[in-house]
């Protein structure tokens, strides 16, 4: 029996999809390299973990509730909390099994064969993979040489044929962010036939930084169709539970996405944990504070080694290490250090390192020094 004929008959856009590069697990690195401690700095996770209030809630959970019931398909508790905090209509909100789920839902709701999407490179892989899986053609605009958004080049790439513009602000993997003027300038070049997908996975880290835009206000004033994405995976420390949310410019857009998503895409434990986490903003603030201090230290330590990381408003640094980043990252695994080497064409000498605990950050610097090709 062979599946070749069957696979040959499939949609080419799926057959040709690149695989998402999800990074290595700590267990795998421990087992393969015999190290006891792993500094997991490849996935932008929160070293502080989840809030103590979430852990306390989960410890009580199994006795208080039943696993046999379906979860609330509309995430009502979380929906009410977030709608109030953001001052948006509850019907504008949409929830996903992580915001990556919402990226997939948006691609499959709003894009079809031949539709044009504009995004940046280096990019968050799923900003390209999901549109491609829906048959769209993705145009990537490189960041400037100084690793800032090239707003002029983005404007030049956008046309009335563009169906969707996808930007993460702060950028993953670079860390830089557009300011309010740049964001307004970009949006003024977008036609009303285009959906602006504004991914703020690192919003909480950037919100207090100088020049970071009030994107919700700017998207609203644009009059365009838009979808703003945020997540509980990063500053809230809940990556393992998978909860992301989106705000759509109009309830109609959220309603369309609602038909495409799976009805029970957020499990009950995750819904409850996210609601408890959302109420504990002190935990978020402390995580952001840790990150800012760690980022300043790591930036200085890298500069002392002759490396110039990009400006970052997020919980990671991106830099050119001057050599094959994948090979260097592979050598660093022997020290129990996981980082993310970049693989997109033109960025193969770049790596992204998450800001972890002070000890893990120090381990990273030590390993980077030891393992890099001396020059
Ligand atoms: C981490 C990340 C996401 C996905 O986060 P989820 O865990 O799926 O909520 C989405 N966009 C960007 C840019 C990210 O870095």
UniProtKB/TrEMBL annotation:
Kind of enzyme, top EC level?
transferase
Q: Which UniProt keywords apply?
A: Amino-acid biosynthesis, Aminotransferase, Histidine biosynthesis, Pyridoxal phosphate, Transferase
The identity of this protein, by name, is Histidinol-phosphate aminotransferase
The annotated subunit structure for this chain is: Homodimer.
* Record domain Aminotransferase class I/classII large: where: 37-366
Q: Which segment of the chain is annotated as a signal peptide?
A: none
Q: Which family does it belong to?
A: Belongs to the class-II pyridoxal-phosphate-dependent aminotransferase family. Histidinol-phosphate aminotransferase subfamily.
Q: Which GO terms describe its molecular function?
A: histidinol-phosphate transaminase activity; pyridoxal phosphate binding
In what pathway does it function? Answer: Amino-acid biosynthesis; L-histidine biosynthesis; L-histidine from 5-phospho-alpha-D-ribose 1-diphosphate: step 7/9
Respond yes or no to whether keyword Transferase is given for this record.
Answer: yes
Pfam families attached to this UniProt entry: Aminotran_1_2 (PF00155)
Cited InterPro entries? Aminotrans_II_pyridoxalP_BS (IPR001917), Aminotransferase_I/II_large (IPR004839), HisP_aminotrans (IPR005861), HistidinolP_aminotransfase (IPR050106), PyrdxlP-dep_Trfase (IPR015424), PyrdxlP-dep_Trfase_major (IPR015421), PyrdxlP-dep_Trfase_small (IPR015422)
Catalysed conversion reaction: L-histidinol phosphate + 2-oxoglutarate = 3-(imidazol-4-yl)-2-oxopropyl phosphate + L-glutamate
User: EC number(s) in its UniProt entry?
Assistant: 2.6.1.9
Q: Which cofactor does it need?
A: pyridoxal 5'-phosphate
Q: Which residues carry this modification: N6-(pyridoxal phosphate)lysine?
A: 234
Q: Which GO terms describe its biological process?
A: L-histidine biosynthetic process
């Amino acid at each position: 029996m062979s599946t070749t004929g069957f696979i040959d008959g499939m949609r080419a856009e799926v057959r040709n999809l690149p695989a998402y590069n999800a990074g290595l697990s700590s267990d795998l690195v421990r087992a393969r390299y015999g190290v006891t401690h792993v500094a997991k700095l490849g996935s932008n996770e929160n070293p502080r973990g989840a809030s103590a209030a979430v852990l306390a809630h989960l410890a009580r959970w199994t006795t208080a509730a039943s696993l046999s019931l379906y979860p609330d398909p509309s995430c009502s508790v979380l929906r009410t909390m977030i709608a109030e905090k953001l001052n948006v209509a509850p019907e504008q909100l949409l929830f996903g099994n992580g915001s990556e789920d919402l990226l997939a839902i948006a691609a499959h709701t709003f894009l079809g064969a031949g539709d044009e999407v504009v995004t940046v490179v280096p990019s968050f892989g799923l900003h390209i993979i999901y549109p491609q899986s829906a048959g769209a053609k993705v145009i990537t605009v490189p960041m400037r040489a100084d690793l800032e958004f090239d707003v002029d080049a983005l404007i030049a790439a956008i046309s009335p044929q563009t169906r969707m513009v996808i930007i993460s602000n702060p950028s993953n993997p670079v860390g830089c962010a557009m300011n309010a003027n740049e964001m307004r300038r970009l949006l003024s070049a977008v036609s009303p036939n285009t959906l602006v997908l504004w991914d703020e996975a690192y919003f909480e880290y950037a919100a207090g930084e100088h020049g970071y835009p009030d994107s919700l206000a700017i998207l609203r004033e644009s009059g365009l169709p838009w979808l703003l994405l945020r997540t509980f995976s990063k500053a809230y420390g809940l990556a393992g539970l998978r909860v992301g949310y989106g705000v759509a410019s109009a309830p109609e857009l959220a309603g369309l996405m609602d038909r495409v998503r799976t009805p029970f895409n957020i499990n009950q434990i995750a819904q409850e944990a996210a609601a408890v986490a959302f109420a504990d903003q002190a935990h978020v603030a402390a995580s952001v504070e840790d990150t800012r201090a760690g980022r300043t230290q790591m930036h200085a330590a890298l500069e002392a080694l002759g490396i110039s990381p990009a400006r970052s408003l997020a919980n990671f640094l991106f830099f050119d290490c001057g050599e094959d980043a994948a090979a260097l990252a592979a050598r660093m695994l022997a020290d129990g250090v996981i980082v993310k080497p970049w693989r997109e064409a033109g960025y193969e000498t770049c790596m992204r390192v998450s800001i972890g605990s002070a000890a893990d950050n120090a381990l990273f610097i030590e390993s980077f020094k030891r393992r890099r090709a001396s020059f």
